[in-house]
Amino acid sequence: MKLMWRILSSWLLVVAWWPLPILAQSALTADQQRAMEHITEQRVTTTISFLASDELAGRDTPSPGLRVAAAYVAARFRGAGLEGGGANGSFYQMASIDRVQTPNSGVVLTDAQGEPIPHFGLLAGGPIAVEASGPVAPIQWRNEIGDSRWTGPVLAKYEGTDSTRRAPYAIARTTRQLHEAGATALLLQVDPDHQLIVLAQQNRAQSRAANPRATTAIPVLLVPMDIELNGAVSLQLPAEQKVAEPVANVIGVLRGKGTELANEAILVSAHLDHLGQREGAEGDNIYNGADDNASGVTGVLMLADAFAALDTRPERTVIFIAYWGEERGLLGSRYLVQNPVWPLQQIKANINLEMIGRPEAGAREKIWMTGWEQSDLGELMAAGAKRVEVDVFEHPQFSSMLYRASDNWPLVEAGLIAHSFSAGSLHKDYHQPGDEWEKLDLPHMTRVIRGLFAGSLPIADATVTPQKSANRR
After folding, report:
1. Cβ-based neighbours of 216, under 8 Å, separated by 6 or more
2. Which end of the chain has fewer beta carbons closer than 10 Å to its terminal beta carbon, N or C?
3. Considering just the CA atoms, what is the radius of gyration of the chain in Å?
C-alpha cells in the first residue's frame, strides 16, 4: 500500500508540473532572437544585486531607499530609449501618501518659577496641542482607571515589559483610557537608557504610516524616572503633525510602430517597494525583498531592454511600470487605475511579475500565472514561451488563490485582462530579512525572463489578442 501511494504521489507531482496543451507559434525572428540576447545572467545579476542591496534599506513606502530605487529604474528606462509615461514626459507618475510625524520642537515643561524641567522629548503627539498650568496627578501605570477622573496632565512610571514593536500599542490603549477619564497629557517616566527614548527619537526624525491601533489619544512626553513633580508646572505640547510624503510610479513607454494598433498597449509591471527595516531585533534588520519583488522589477527592466533593442518595433505600444506601495495595499496600482496614463480600454493585457527568482522543486525554468481560468492569456504566453523552451502553466495551488493578491488585481477590477506571473513560491524567506539576492537562482531567473519576452512578443505584435473566458469569476 505504501509503495502504491509513493508511486501515485510521484505521478501527481509530475502531472502538476506537466505543461498544458498550447497553441503553435512561429519561431523567433532573427531580430527578436538578437533582442532577447540582451537578457543575460550578468545583467540580471547587476540589476538584482543593486535593487536588493542593504543600501536601499528595504525600499519601504515611502523612504529614501525607495526614492533611490525609483531613480535607478527611471535611469534604466531612459537609457533603453523609452519615453517617460508621466506628466510632461517625466518617468514619474507623482502621488502622495499621508503620514504622521512627532514634533521635534515646541515642547515646554517648566516649574512654578519658570525653570525648565528635564525631559527626553515627545514619544507621540496627540490630535491637538495641549497647554496646561497646575499640578500633575501621579497615577499607577498598571492600575485600573475605573471611575478615576482627571482634568489635566498625569504622571506615571512606565512599567511595561512589551517589546519595542508592541509597546506603542500598549501605550496607545492606556492613553485612550486616560483621555476618556479626562487626562489631557501623559508624562511617562523612563530610565535614561530605555528603549522608548530611541523609539521617540525615531518618531521625531521621520514620518511613519498612520496606524489607528498605535495612535495616542493624548500627547506622551518622556521624562526621567527620578523626577519629582510635586508642585505646579507649565506645560506646552504640540500636536502630532500630518505629512504628505511624495511617492511615484515609474513608467516608461515604447510606442508601437505608428499604425492604428499603436493606440493599443500591453502593460508589463512589478512592484518596486518592500517592507523596509524592523527595529529592536538582533541581527539582520533589513527586509531586502530580493525575490519579493526586486526580482519582478529586474524582469521588467530586462524586458524593457529587450523590447527597446528590436529593430522592428511591435505593433502595439508596450508600457513598463514599477509600482510603489504594493505592500501597503496595492496602492500604486490603484493610483494608476484612478489616474490612468493610457486609456484603460486600450490596454489589451497586463503582465505583472511577482517573485520570479526562487523556483519550487521540479519547476525550474517554468512560470505559473494567477487566475488561469479567467482569460486565455496564460495559453497565449505558454505558446510564445515554448519557443525558447520555457513552460507557462497553471499552478495547482496558487494560480487561483493569489489572483487577487498582487498589482494585477486593481486592473482586473477595472475590467482589464490582468494576471501575475511567478516563477517561485512562498518560501521560508518570504517577508523575512533572509530574502537576499544571493539566495536567488539567477540562471533560472534569466531563462524565465527570456520566456516572458518570447511569450509576450505575439501579443505586442498583435498577432494574437487575449480574451476573457466565458466562465470568468
Report:
1. 123, 124, 125, 126, 171, 172, 175, 176, 186, 240
2. N
3. 27
- Residue with grid cell 496543451, as numbered in its chain: 21
User: 358-393: per-residue pLDDT in tens?
Assistant: 999 889 999 999 999 999 999 999 999 999 999 999
The contacts of residue 420 (CB under 8 Å, 6+ apart) are 352, 353, 354, 369, 370, 402, 403, 405, 406, 407, 408
Beta carbons within 8 Å of 9's beta carbon, 6+ residues apart: none
SS3 391: strand
Query: Of 289, 313, 318, nearest to 303 (Cα)?
Result: 318
pTM for the full predicted model:
0.84
Q: What does pLDDT average to over the chain?
A: 91
Is the dihedral angle over the CA atoms 25, 418, 287, 367 positive or is it negative? negative
Q: Where are the alpha helices (DSSP H) in 326-441?
A: 331-338, 377-385, 398-401, 409-413
Per-residue DSSP letter, 329: T
Residue 67 corresponds to which cell in the numbers above?
A: 526614492
- Is the pLDDT at 15 greater than 80? The verdict is no
Q: What burial class does residue 426 get, using C-beta atoms within 10 Å of its C-beta: 0-12 exposed, 13-18 middle, 19+ buried?
A: middle
CB 49 within 8 A of CB 437: yes
Q: Which three cell numbers stand for residue 220?
A: 506622551
Confidence of residue 280 (pLDDT cuts 50, 70, 90): low
Q: Any idea which residue has 525572463 for its cell?
A: 449
| Non-local CB neighbours of 130 within 8 Å, separated by 6+ positions | 153, 184, 185, 218, 219, 235, 236, 237
Question: Amino acid identity, residue 217?
Answer: A
